[in-house]
Each structure stands twice: as C-alpha cells, then as structure tokens.
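In the laboratory, one determines a bound structure by crystallizing the protein with its ligand and collecting diffraction data. In a computational setting the workflow is compressed into a single prediction: the sequence and the ligand go in, and a structural description comes out. We illustrate the idea with 2'-O-acetyl adenosine-5-diphosphoribose.
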Amino acid sequence: MSSPIKDARERVRAAKAIAVLTGAGVSAESGIPTFRSNGGYWQKYRFEDLATPQAFARDPKFVWQWYEERRRAIAVARPNAGHEALVAIERRAPRFTLITQNVDGLHDLAGSQNTIKLHGDIWIVRCLKCGREQVDRSELTDLPPKCACGGMLRPGVVWFGEMLPEGAMERAAAAVKASDILIVAGTSAQVYPAAGLIPLAIANGSAVIEVNPDATDFSDDVAFALHGPSAEILPQLL
Ligand code: OAD
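The predicted complex, in structure-token form:
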C-alpha cells in the first residue's frame, strides 16, 4: 500500500543528490526552544531587542546575556533521532548537502559532514576590533566578553539585517538546484533568504519533502508534507 511516508522514503532511497534545509524545530526534541512555535523565543522577546546589530550596539551586555543563556542550554543538549537520521541519509546518498539555519552545532555533534551554516555558529566569538574569530565554549561570565586585543567580542551568528557568511547562500542555492530532493525539516520558512531555497527547489524540479508538525506557507506546494516531529518522521525516511 502506498503512503506519503513510504513514497517519500522511496524518493530518498533513489535520489542521487539530496539537499536538506533545517531550522530550529529539528532541535526542539533536544530541549532547545524554537523561535516562533509555542514557547519560542519570539513569543517572549522582541527580536529587535536581541538579534539585530542595533540591539547589540545599544546594549551588548543584555544581548550577550541572552546568548550566554542559550549557550548554556545548548551545552547540555544532545542530538536527537532526527539529527541522527540525517547523518545516516548523508552516508548513503551519493551527493548530500545539509543547509542549516541553526547555530546550535547539534548537526556537527551528531556527525553531519557536508554542512552549510547559513546563520553562523553560537560557539564562535568574533572580535569587533581585530576581526579574529575563534571557537569558545567556555562559560562567559564578564559580559560583554573581551578579545586578547582589548576589543569587544560578539557572537558569531547572523543577525536580522546582516549579510549571510560569504558564499554560504551561493553554495546552498547550487546544492538545491543540483538536488533531486530537498528535505525541509523544522523550519517555519518565514526568514529569507533561507526560505527562498524551497521555491528554488520546486522551480528546479526537485521534489520537496517537508517535515513539520504544523503547516507552513509552502505546505500546499511541496511534493510531500509529512506532519509530525522530526525526531519521529526523519528516521522513517531511512
Ligand atoms: P522557527 O521557530 O521560526 O520555526 C520552527 C519550526 O519548527 C515551526 O514551523 C514549528 O512548527 C516546527 N517544529 C516545532 N517542533 C518541531 C519538531 N519537534 N519537529 C519538527 N518541527 C518542529 O525557527 P526557524 O524556521 O529555524 O534567525 O527560524 C528561522 C530563523 O529565525 C532562525 O535561524 C533565527 C530566527 O529568528 C536569526 O536569529 C537570524
């Protein structure tokens, strides 16, 4: 008997080139809050106060307190069955690119290899004065933290109104255009340019498999809209 999940699984198995776009929802079952769903950060805070260069210029300590709170929550989180399923899919696929909007590093921890981080990495700190970037997982107590050069450090993430890391969107678009399927998991698909990868895939004839408990603006247009948590649905695509 044919079912959407079985048909989607067949497409994953047969695909020569797979692209994946993930968002905060894939880490929800690892205990990390999303931004826009129930209990999400943007229900409690205004993103203008926390995730813009203007907010950081106004009150770097306040912004850092939020990032440090998130860093501590992420530090104790473990990848879930959804992250792990994507690693297994990568191992089997001839060509595979994971494009993530997440900054939590859980895809890395699970073992994903060919990954494009569109919105940076919460474990990277960057100096505003000398530009040096480094990974720093330590607990940051004296906020805002300082670089060895004396300059102020900022989180190595992309804020609203900022450019994506150089070349990241170009590489992501190329992977999507070259894909036979695009798996879109755990994103509300509200934030561009990342969300634009979905219509790009559709326009290029790539079959889109959406994994989300809720419908998004693209659910009616995708080949498969699989409704459920990614830690349950993604393993079923194996
Ligand atoms: P959102 O919080 O906007 O969306 C999370 C999506 O995950 C929603 O569509 C939920 O329905 C879905 N979801 C919730 N639980 C899930 C589960 N267990 N399994 C699968 N899906 C689940 O997060 P993003 O789309 O990632 O950017 O947000 C995009 C960007 O907006 C983020 O990278 C961040 C944010 O503001 C910046 O801060 C620049």
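The mean pLDDT is 97. Keep in mind that any predicted model is a hypothesis to be tested, not a measurement.
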